[in-house]
Amino acid sequence: MLNMNHLLPSLIAQYGGLVYGGLFIIIFVETGLVVFPFLPGDSLLFLSGSIAAMTAHSLNHITLIILLSIAAIAGDSLNFEIGHHFGQHLTKPKWQRWIKPKYLKEAGQFFHNHGNSAIFLGRFMPVIRTLIPFTAGVSKMHYRKFILFNVLGGIAWVSVAVLAGYFFGNITIVKTHFELIMLAIIVISLLPAILISLKRKSKGTDVNA
Fold it and tell me: Do 118 and 140 meet the contact criterion of CB atoms below 8 Å apart?
């Protein structure tokens, strides 16, 4: 991901608008397939937005928001259906190499604590973002409730990340330290999951004491 700020402009120069398709696939796969929670959603959206602000490149921030919002919504919908129809099989031990029980437990706890709004809030948390719709499907959440928060969350997540890159990605200090900014985005987006994990461990320590 740290090399994407050099790679993505090169791909745009070489393939032009076809890059939209590649971005669509990455966002769709990250949100839609429960075995790919490690793909760089937040930082890729921010980078795409910052490139769209440059007149030398063909990306358009409005097109990015519309197209990648559709990818995020469609991805979560697929993930929900996978959880709904195959969740009981995919949580068996033979799948634990690909679907980590620890991550599923964290997503399940997050879903339990925040209810329906977890679909929206989970969009802004890596790993949790990929597992929440799967967890909702496994728990047999009503699809009408799911799709509402799915649409709102998908549009909000993509819009915030792309527009943040569009308006702030080309500030001199950001451009100078772009790799550090990418790392910061990853760390900040992981903080909620880390805090939840630490809080749970703290409670466990208190009980044992």
Answer: no
Angle at 79 between CA 75 and CA 84, to 5 degrees: 150
Q: Is residue 140 exposed (0-12), middle (13-18) or buried (19+ Cβ within 10 Å)?
A: exposed
d(CA 74, CA 67) in angstroms, rounded, equals 11
The domains of the chain are located at 4-208
Q: Which residues contact 207 (CB under 8 A, 6 or more apart)?
A: none
105 within 8 A of 5, measured Cβ to Cβ: no
Please check whether residue 185 is in contact with residue 46, taking contact to mean a CB–CB distance below 8 angstroms: yes
Q: Cα–Cα distance between 81 and 114 in angstroms, integer? A: 21
Tell me the two tokens of residue 45: 């959206």
The pTM of the full predicted model, rounded to 2 decimals, is 0.77
pLDDT at 157: 93
- What is the per-residue pLDDT across 11-56, written as a single tens digit (0 to 9) for each? 888 888 899 999 999 999 988 887 776 777 788 898 888 888 876 6
Q: What is the DSSP letter of 122?
A: G
Residue of 170, 115, 113 whose CA lies nearest to 142: 115
Sign (positive or negative) of CA dihedral 107, 36, 192, 166:
negative
* Predicted pLDDT at 53: 83
Determine which helix (DSSP H) or strand (DSSP E) holds 92, and give its type and residue range: none
Q: What percent of the chain clears pLDDT 90, i.e. is strictly above it?
A: 22
Q: What is the pLDDT, as a whole number, of residue 25?
A: 93
